[in-house]
Amino acid sequence: MRIYMQIPAADGSAPRYYHLHLQEDLLEGWTLVREWGFQGQGGRLRKEHFDSREAAQEALLRVRDEQLKRGYCVVFVQGQEPS
Predict the structure, then answer these.
(1) CATH architecture of 2-78
(2) What is the pTM of this model?
(3) How far apart are CA 18 and CA 34, in angstroms?
(4) Is the Cβ–Cβ distance between 21 and 5 less than 8 Å?
(5) Which of 26, 34, 40, 44 is the most buried (most CB within 10 A)?
(6) Long-range residue pairs from 4-8, CB within 8 A, at least 24 positions apart, any chain
(7) What is the Cα–Cα distance from 37 to 16, expressed in whole angstroms?
(8) Closest by alpha carbon to 61, among 20, 29, 27, 26?
(9) Where are the beta strands (DSSP E) in the chain?
(10) Alpha carbon distances (Å) from 5 to 27, 69, 73
(11) How much is the pLDDT for 35?
């Protein structure tokens, strides 16, 4: 699953982005990768490991909801949310 969010540009600055995606690792676990910063510039990166896909998806959706409260808008979603 992959989610890309942005806050529109203000005062002539570049828009801010927040990118979340899940990656399966080689040890039967999952990694939530978070990247954020200003569009067109290098951003910050954080990786968090989870033992199950369900736990990783819950964390991804929790982070998405936190960023929506901060004013980010979802621009792109790839994959399916858990039912």
Answers:
(1) Single Sheet (2.20)
(2) 0.86
(3) 7
(4) no
(5) 34
(6) 4/74, 4/75, 4/76, 4/77, 5/64, 5/67, 5/68, 5/72, 5/73, 5/74, 5/75, 6/39, 6/72, 6/73, 6/75, 7/70, 7/71, 7/72, 7/73, 8/73
(7) 6
(8) 20
(9) 2-7, 16-24, 30-38, 44-50, 73-78
(10) 29, 12, 5
(11) 97
Measured in whole angstroms, how far is the alpha carbon of residue 65 from the centre of its chain? 10
Say if residue 44 is exposed, middle or buried (CB neighbours under 10 Å; 0-12, 13-18, 19+). exposed
Domain ranges (residues) in the chain: 2-78
Q: What is the pLDDT along the chain (83 residues), one digit of tens a residue?
A: 999 999 988 787 889 999 999 999 888 899 999 999 998 888 999 999 999 999 999 999 999 999 999 999 999 999 866 54
Q: What is the edge-to-edge ordering of all strands in the sheet holding 30-38?
A: 44-50, 30-38, 16-24, 2-7, 73-78
DSSP state of 29: -
CA distance 12 to 52: 42
